[in-house]
Amino acid sequence: MSAKVLGVPSVIASAVLLAACGGGGGSSGGDTTTQTATVTGVAAKGLLLGAQVEACADMECREIVAETKTDDDGRYQLRLPVDEHFVIRVRHTEHAQMICDLPQGCGDEVKWGEPGLMPKDITLRSIARVDRTSQEVSAHVTPLTELVMIAAQVSNAGAITPPPEKATENGQEAVLKLLGIEADTPLDLTKLEPVNITKGDHLEAATPEQRNLSVISAAFGRKDETARFISDFAKGFFSETTQDDINKLQEAVDSLNNKTEQQAKINPTATSDIPLTPVTDSQRSQLSQNAIAVRNLVEDIRTVGIDIYKQYDEADLRNTGLLGQIQGIEDFAQDAILWNFEALARVNDAISNGLIEEYANDPECALQCSDTPNSVDLQTDLGADNDISGTLTRVGDRWTLDNGRLSTLDGDPIDVTVEFTVPKVLGENQFAFEILSAKAQGLGAQVELSDARLSVVADQPFTQDQLRDDIPVEGDGNFLRRLELAGTLKLQYTDNEQILAFEGSTKFLAATNNNMIEDNRGNPELDGDTLLPVSFRLDGRFDNGVLGDYLKAEVLVTLDNANEYSLVQNQGAASSEGTGDRFPLATMQVKTAGRITENLPEMDILFRLQRTGEEDAKASITLGWNGYNDQTARRFLTLEMAYSGDTEDLGLMATNASGATFELLPRNQYASNDVVGYVFMDGARHATIREERSNVFTITYHFDEEGNRSTKEAFETLF
Fold first, then answer.
1. Distances (CA, A) of 498 to 452, 543, 588
2. Integer Cα distance of 606 and 622 in angstroms
3. Stretch 211-233: mean pLDDT, rounded?
């Protein structure tokens, strides 16, 4: 293993290149580092089975880093980057269940210890602090941890970022004080695993703390009022919890303590088949509610869905209208991602191989004379065959790169000027540059970056004195572990005579993983080029110079398999070639608002495109708007299509806020009786969709709005 010295100014080449490539990216949307750890936990308010679990970079889960579902024991497992902390959110998803832990039962049909449908309004959070020294981290999720998160956010001045450790400790203390719990030793409610209090053997194996706190968590429930109960109780953090709230909780705890002294029981999951007549009054009431929800979904499909499809077809051809603009933003972001892949190869190559190694090693170089202007001709210093040229000048703590030019892998030139500061140490292996200004032109783009910061995580520690002069690098060229660039961006891009522009904030995150390092070690084609674009964000105004219109939007792109992905480069192969079974899985989402057509109201829009396999993908669009007649009634609709190779196999799923699901089958799954889809609610089939003739669809309802089974099964035209 050889030792060499890397001059500090070479690191800023990454800022130059990233600025030239448009920059961007989410801070934690796809965050990864060299090392990851397993985060596990149990989700319970009664055990939650098949519930959605999300690791988030903020309190509101605007950025989801990883997601999974709880298993049949309420457990979940995620792989998350170390040296970070994440909000763990558990929420309802289709078919999620909750073990009833209320002595009086959960509704008319679900008894103590039985699984029932998880209420849609339950959302619980916890915190996971992933330490570098940990192989596995526990983060359990209960009503008590939700209270901790609420109190921690209050302690953290209402910030939406994950609360720091001190704020979380304050939250723990506030919850324990509010509940009147005194402990001999500090209790971490996020680390205390909840138990299934409806099973006697589980209670016997539990510690007193587990049993008591699990009982208190279970006490936060009144049939379908769990979320309200938690919310009301949380008012105590603002001195609004009443004695009545305390008494209700104590009554529930006393009732549960009596119940848990008995042997608990669990029955098999209730069937989701359509009830046969006769039905009970409660069943009929539920079927009536479900039938109304199904009719509302069909109404949304008929009035909203078809307009979207028609407009999207036109958007493909004309690139006009709101969906056409979203499609243009999608193309814009895809090009920017390709630029960033291109740039990162040059960034890591330049830094790892010592862009100005000879300059930094030159004993005559007066880098330590901070009051004296110093400059060096990079092209002369490194030789004419280098990919980067220009003049670096330092005055005090400020560096300037003038007349910079770099070449892409394909030999295309990019002209660059940039002004930046001497880096500052942020942590043992971390430092950052303040980028005062940067301009770049090339690859059909003109870029201006300002008020920016480039944060770097390396594979070894260093001091502030080393950063002012040079950084000793031990190893074989894989110095960088992570780069994050954030700032204000102006960008104009010309593609096929179409001018697109962007102005707003941008973040870009790149990192490496062990697979990339090991698979490319010693390979002259890629050795050192191990950084991957992990997440990319643009948030601002997108202008279409040809059409003269603009759209305000937030774009986030993440590499979903950043922890595992590796481009294995065969020596002598083209730069784009990789092994057949290794491919990036990525998600792009665009958030915006507007009117899709003149017939539809103003809507919040979330477009999401996800690659899930080598030839598999899914696309969805989620809409939120005020009701057609009642402007205070908020409605939601999600349309989702899955791709698998042949576009003839496309299917459609649509859901609304009530949980009704509209499913159009892929054409190759059409039944012989012209059945092309179904509508479900709570797992029961409420309607059947048929194609009577080409592009003429009808829908047959199996229940009327009174909750009775339809006898005639009269149908109506869908569209």
1. 28, 11, 22
2. 5
3. 63
Run of H or E residues at 439: strand 430-442
Mean pLDDT rounded to a whole number for the chain? 68
φ, ψ of residue 344 to 5 degrees: the values are -65, -35
> Chain centroid to CA 515: how far?
23
DSSP 140: -
CA distances from 623 to 62, 297, 316, 627, 657 (A): 16, 13, 20, 12, 11
Residues near 111 by Cβ (< 8 Å), separated by ≥ 6?
A: 100, 105, 267
> ∠ CA(98), CA(102), CA(103), 5° rounding?
140
The alpha carbon of residue 107 and the mean position of all alpha carbons in its chain are separated, in whole angstroms, by 35
∠ CA 573-577-580, rounded to 5°: 120
User: CA-CA distance, 386 to 409, in Å (whole number)?
Assistant: 12
| Cα(79)–Cα(514) distance, integer angstroms | 14
Cis ω for the linkage preceding 461 (within 30 of 0):
no
Phi, psi of 328 (to 5 degrees): -65, -40
Mean pLDDT value of segment 388-397: 77
Helix (H) or strand (E) segment spanning residue 226: helix 226-234
One-letter amino acid of 49 = L
Q: Which run of H or of E encompasses 587? A: strand 586-594
Please, which residues have CB within 8 angstroms of residue 11's CB and are 6 or more apart in sequence?
A: 351, 423, 433, 456, 471
Q: Residue 622 — φ and ψ, nearest 5°? A: -110, 130
HSE toward the beta carbon, residue 552, CA cutoff 13 A: 6
Q: How far is the C-alpha of 193 from the C-alpha of 139, rounded, in Å?
A: 8
For 466, 474, 477, 530, the CA distances from 1, given in Å and listed in that order, are: 21, 7, 10, 19
Least confident of 6-10, 38-42, 331-335, 611-615: 6-10
Written as one string, the DSSP assignment of 469-515 is SEEEEESSS--EEEEEEEEEEEEEEEETTEEEEEEEEEEEEEE--HH
Cα–Cα distance, 545 to 57 (Å, whole number): 35
For residue 116, how many other CB atoms are within 10 A of its CB?
Answer: 18
Residue with token string 């594979």: 459
**pTM value?**
0.52
Q: Are strands 603-611 and 398-407 parallel, antiparallel or unpaired?
A: unpaired
- Phi/psi region, residue 353 (left: phi>0; alpha: psi -120 to 50; beta: rest), is alpha
Sign of CA dihedral 9, 15, 18, 19: negative
* DSSP 3-state of 359: helix
Question: Residue 95 phi/psi, 5° resolution?
Answer: 75, 5
Alpha carbon of 330 to those of 174, 333, 341, 491, 541: distances in Å? Answer: 45, 5, 17, 15, 14
Q: Which pLDDT score is estimated for 125?
A: 93
Give, to the nearest 10 degrees, the angle between helix 226-234 and helix 243-259: 130
- Secondary structure percentages of the chain, helix, strand, coil, to 5: 25, 35, 40
**What are the strands, taking DSSP E only, across 279-325?**
none
Q: What is the pLDDT of residues 96-105, one digit of tens each?
A: 999 888 777 7
